[in-house]
Structures are given as structure tokens and as C-alpha cells.
Amino acid sequence: AWLADRPGEMLVTFNGYQYQVTLMVAAVAIAGVVAAVMIVWWLIKSLWNSPYTISRYFRVRRRDRGYQALSTGMIAAGAGDGALARKKTKEAAKLISADQEPLINLLDAQASLLEGDHEGAREKFERMLDDPEMRLLGLRGLYLEAERLGDRNAARHYAGRAAAVAPQLAWAAESTLEELTERGDWD
After folding, report:
1. What pLDDT shows up at residue 80?
2. What is d(CA 163, CA 160) in angstroms, rounded to the nearest whole number?
3. Which residue of 23, 85, 98, 172 could cross-link 111, Cys pair, CB 3.0 to 4.6 Å?
4. Are 141 and 107 in contact (CB under 8 A)?
């Protein structure tokens, strides 16, 4: 509005030609050129980054499918469906690395328990002891397996290790307290 209220002309001489336009037309033309340059830059940048964007889309989609399989497998394990839990374990392991998501190891061990492969489950729980994030879960699994077998010494050993690391765990504290009480170790 300010430019429209002030009459004026712009004269440009270029390559032997003279261009004469009003100040308002010149301002609109400059704004149009700037907008066109910005759009062209955006298109070039989008094309340049498209391989990364496409690969990221498929990577995220694959990860999401893996987490969906993991979730379905955990629900199946909780419900007692060993076959579906095993199937979803394999599917999740294909889509997500066990290093990225340690719950795949838990689902694998739970599926083994549901299938009756207690030795395989025990091995998987023992492997969890090497990972600091999964150590307590592995100790809990080994504790429950020792309890199932009636091996109180092994169960108390695993509970004692867990209680040393995380004294707030009720199952570990109770088992350790029971053992100490039976021995008469009141200190």
C-alpha cells in the first residue's frame, strides 16, 4: 500500500534494452524471483535427500513391524500360547536386533519355557547375565527354574546375587532373608 501510494518508476538498462516499470511492479517482480529461487532450492534439496528419506522410512517401518511382533509375542507368552510366542520371537528377531531390544531375549526364553524346553530356557537366562541391562531378569529366570526343580541352594544363590545388586527386589530379599534366618546369621 505504501508503494502504491507513492508513484515512481524504475528504469533498468540491460544489454542495450531499456525496461521501465512502476515501483510496485518492480517490488512484486523481485518478490516473485525470490520465491521462485526458494522453491527451486527446496526441490533440489528434496531430490538430493530423497534416498536417505526413503531408506529411513523403510527402516522405521521395519522397526515398527518388529515391535508389533514383539508385543504380540509377549501377549501370547503371557496367555500361554507357546507356538505363537515362538513364531513372533523369530519374526521380531528378523526385524529388530536383539542388541537394540533385549526383550527379544526374554520372549525367546519364555517361548522355550512354554514349549517345555527348560534346558534351552535356562541357557537363555544364563546368557542374559552377561548383559547388565538384562542381568536381573536372567537371575529371576534362573531362580524360578531352580525353584521349579526344587534346588533350593541354586535358587538362593541366584536370589543372593540379585539381592546384592538390587536389594529392593522383594523375591530376592525374601529368599536371602529366609536363607540367613535358617543359618541363624542374624547379623
Report:
1. 92
2. 5
3. 85
4. no
